[in-house]
Specification:
single chain; alpha/beta; seven-stranded mixed beta sheet; four-stranded mixed beta sheet; globular
Amino acid sequence: MTLLDYDREHLWHPYASMTDPAPVRVVTGARGVHLTLDDGGRTREVVDGMSSWWAAVHGYGVPELDAALRSVDFAHVMFGGLTHAPAVRLAERLVALAPAGLERVFLADSGSVSVEVALKMALQAQRGRGRAGRTRVLTVRGGYHGDTFGAMSVCDPDGGMHAMWTGVLAQQVFAPRPPAPGGDVAGWAAAFEALAAAHADEVAAIVVEPVLQGAGGMWVYDPACLRTLRETADRHGFLLVLDEIATGFGRTGELWAADHAGVVPDVMCVGKALGAGYLTLAAVLCTAEVAADVSASESGALMHGPTFMGNALACTVALAGLDLLEARGWRDDVRRIERGLADGLAGLAGLAGVRTLGAVGVVQLDHPVDLVAATDAALAEGVWLRPFRDLVYTMPPYACSDDDVARICAGVRAAVAAG
């Protein structure tokens, strides 16, 4: 039985059927920003336009990251009752990079887990403040925060990927999706504030992805909306939780997407690029005030502790990845990629909705994408893409050259034409 045959019979892939799965390709190598595929007996090298779901920002087979993997004295020890230099140094680095005031760090092992931890922080902090009745979360439509149950509850309840769980998930409070840049921010802000006021006694926190919504629809919204969220949270005693898992570490053109508005949250989730595409790693940062409020709750402790929390191997690679981010000049790279995506996708503006922000390029069609046809068309141009719903998009590695970006744009155009 071939690899593909066994895969088809036994392996579940993300958001895939086991009885009628979509085609998959075998990866036989990855180097730089390229994947080597064994595609039905044919070997081909393609540019990874997805950064392996937005994580491999430096690409693959990176010498500095490979060296970091080999440098550790031990791969993992339990974090309960123990600590080690990679975890401490990573916390130190994250605090230095984060918006001022985010000084307490919880190391998680995936983005979804970091959201779960942030939700627990918010609810426990309110309990510590004597507001145990505040058990709901205020968020906006169009959002996506992960696939675990708490995280699913703050994803879009109708248009998102978790609509089938309505009635099972915790019932949160959903405001309209924020407007695009230049849209009616004042009108949206008034509606948001009215909703917040109506639920003020039951809401613990506001949770959103800042400026760019990810898997809920790749929607870019006006940064001024973040200032409304901060003001509303302060007015009603909510915590402001920003999910920077996809947007952090420069993806939108600022180190943190919240920097577009100069907003500092009470709690911030980070992940994806933090592990540099090598190992799964995430973190939750909060203020000293939030940490004190959590500790004042009846448990006296934050009630979470993943087995692989503070994994030494992942922390070591993350530190090397952050070194690379600074050494390679991420800001210049992202600006260069943004220009290339804007130029390369401009010709599609008359056919579909096109939006670019930092190292993100999105084409929204007026119909669901034919995943198989669009994927095949992009591969024919030497590009790996993973469209979904009505979207063909790219979030390429920062290490892409101008030629790589031009090829990715050709792949997007081909996928749009075929899909």
